[in-house]
Amino acid sequence: MTDPTDALWVLVCAALVFIMQPGFMCLESGFTRSKNNINVAAKNFADFALASGLFWLVGFGLMFGPSWLGIFGQGEFALDLNRPGSLATFFLFQAMFCGTATTIVSGAVAERVRFGAYGLMSCLISGLIYPVYGHWVWHGLDQGQATGWLGQLGFIDFAGSTVVHSIGGWVALAGLMVIGPRAGRFDAQGRPKKLLGSSLPLSVLGGMLLWFGWFGFNGGSALGLGPEVPRILTNTLMGGVSGLIGGLGIALVYLRRAEVDWMINGCLAGLVAITAGCHLVSTAEAVWIGAIGASVAIWVSLGMERWRLDDAVGAVPVHLGAGAWGTLAVAFFGNPEQLPLPVLPQLGVQLLGVVAAGIWAFGLAYGILRGMDPFWPLRVTSEAEELGLNIVEHGAKTEAYDLIQVMTAHSSRQDLSQRVPVEPFSELGYVGSRYNQVMDALAEAQHEIQQLNLKLKAENQRMGSELELTRRLQQLILPRAQELQRIPGLDIAGFMEPATEVGGDYYDVLEHNGLVRIGIGDVTGHGLESGMLMLMAQTAVRTLAIQQERDPGRVLEILNQVIYENAQRMNSDKNMTLMLLDYHDGILRFSGQHEQIIVVRKEGTIERVDTLDLGFPIGLEADIRQFIAQAEVHLSPGDVVVLYTDGITEAENGSRDLFGLDRLCQVVQQHWQASARDICKAIITEVRQFIQNQQIFDDLTLVVIKQM
Q1: Measured between alpha carbons, how far is residue 623 from residues 302, 392, 556 in Å?
Q2: Between the N and C ends of the chain, which has fewer C-beta atoms within 10 Å?
Q3: CA nearest to 265, candidates 226, 297, 233
Q4: Is there a contact between 542 and 434 (Cβ–Cβ < 8 Å)?
Q5: Is the pTM of this model over 0.90?
């Protein structure tokens, strides 16, 4: 690099490779959950400094110092970078590579490794594993003559598919096997459960930053601005393009949807794969290498799931899997005139390099980490993992953390004194404000209870009064008759009566900007716990309606996340059947699993609409997106729709007979010409006459809608 133009090109490429560090940070922070994303970002920030410092202190010397038998370097430790010549330029470029290899490990082991333990892993890879293997392959190439033992055999890895990416992947795999999967990643039967990241758009930004930085990664490896650089950059581009398209295509065929993380990792796998031979192949060959690299990464990812290996961001499939493929692809696709050996011997040498990387990097890392773990645990405690590493490792709170903490206090301890800190002009701030309004109402009810307790002497009277006040609170948040009368085009009436305890039934009707949203649901069981979940559901549904969320499926997805997380913290088995119906211009669209919908046409014909395949119980699984579907019913003037909970159909008389769906349909058919209010009244009257003096064991909830 005596030519100033060459030196300038390498310096520019070093800066581009540095951009890959914020790329890794965005990618990994977006793929991980919000309670851990600050920790992931901090690890990416710190490991680059550790890697650069150790590379200057010992790594550069081990990698490029005077060689001992082609195995490791013996000099140039803590080198003086102020010497004349191109040494500082070469060091800067190589230090960026060392930082890249190191940070690959961060995303794979995210969300469960102690900060100090990760620092040790970073030191291990940047101070020993990476530079020694790099010496085997790249030593002497800056002088035009390979002197490392693999380089002397003819091993080719132009920009580091194995030297950088597979080495990082092998160390990550060793770490994963020692620390184990994240809590909740696999169920009791070993089936994988996806843990949703905090921000896929942030991960997409990270992927694009990495792609941009890759031009420096591969282009700078020419160590000058020669005539081969445009081909290198073009092949780099097309490797990423074909990898992204390949990942998208496989997702569409295998998952029936455009899975974003498969697109991102497919692109990165294509870039990793083309890195080894980007100077030796044609454009079409680069496309094939990138597409196959994406396929290999996805295949490795699915295999890791079967073996219960939990890679939080897919680092091992992308960097190890696609890196190994890209290294072997040099023999398959490389220009024979530029290869040092014929195809089969070249393939043997390439395979030897891949195997040597695995034995050296995985073997050393696994041995050290496994031997150290019993004495100095790498993993955080289960309590810290549940709370999140943002707060445990860094004391960093977020809006989401504050909201969860307050909701936990409310749901598990019934402590209503705390309020969610509200940050104006943010989505969580708005939700927190609405939640605080509900808690204010509950606190007011609690104050009434406390005042009443002063007047009561017997414990049974006190408990009865608390439950009665809570029952009254539930009635207060139901839609009022005046609100229902203002809804244009519909005649709506509702009825809800909790059983002897506080009820878990829910119904609501909200008209906002021309959209009428109707909800009906049933929380399993009764009591304060069920009532609390019902109130949370009502608040969330109304908040999302006001925020113009018009997709019932999306509402169910968000609501499920809130209820599921709260139920887990409460150590509760509560769940909720819930159906949301949106009415507009004579069309009633609905999603969610609940009781059958009864539709009476204006001539008195009864239709029953089954909702079993339209959803999944809320709060039972962390992710129910795949179960949510939508259907619709067209209404004409005079048509009637009846919604109800199972308290109606399962009401028992003295002979233990059930009121039943057929009897309910008969009552509706007899009164369909009446107003919604009269139909509702007729149904409740029939239920009471049927059960006579029997106790009501379940909540009675009913909504009647009539097209005007």
Answers
A1: 19, 26, 10
A2: C
A3: 297
A4: yes
A5: no
